[in-house]
Design brief:
Strand content: under 5%
Order of helices and strands: HH
Distance between the termini: 43 Å
Number of domains: 1
Number of strands: 0
Helix content: over 70%
Shape: rod-shaped
Largest sheet: none
Radius of gyration: 23 Å
Length: about 80
């Protein structure tokens, strides 16, 4: 998930920087430098946010499964015996 977020936020920031530079009539070299900086920074930020989100989602799913399994074993303790 970290790579996905980095792959979305980085290019999106780069496009935003390019559009911003074109709207304000900036020099081409300035636009490219700013867009590359935005690409790198937001790719790193997106990667970090993606890893944090993936960790939170995994933890939530594991907790929910543990609770469900505990509820099943409490509601039918003799279900494993035939």
């Amino acid at each position: 998930m970290g790579r996905i977020c980095a792959g979305i936020l980085g290019p999106l920031a780069m496009v935003g920087a390019i559009v911003h530079g074109l709207i304000h009539g900036a020099d081409v070299n300035e636009i490219l430098v700013r867009s590359w900086v935005c690409l790198v920074v937001f790719s790193i930020v997106g990667g970090i946010l993606g890893v944090i989100a993936e960790s939170a989602i995994r933890e939530s799913i594991q907790q929910r499964l543990k609770e469900e399994l505990a509820n099943r074993t409490q509601s039918s303790p003799a279900a494993g015996t035939t």
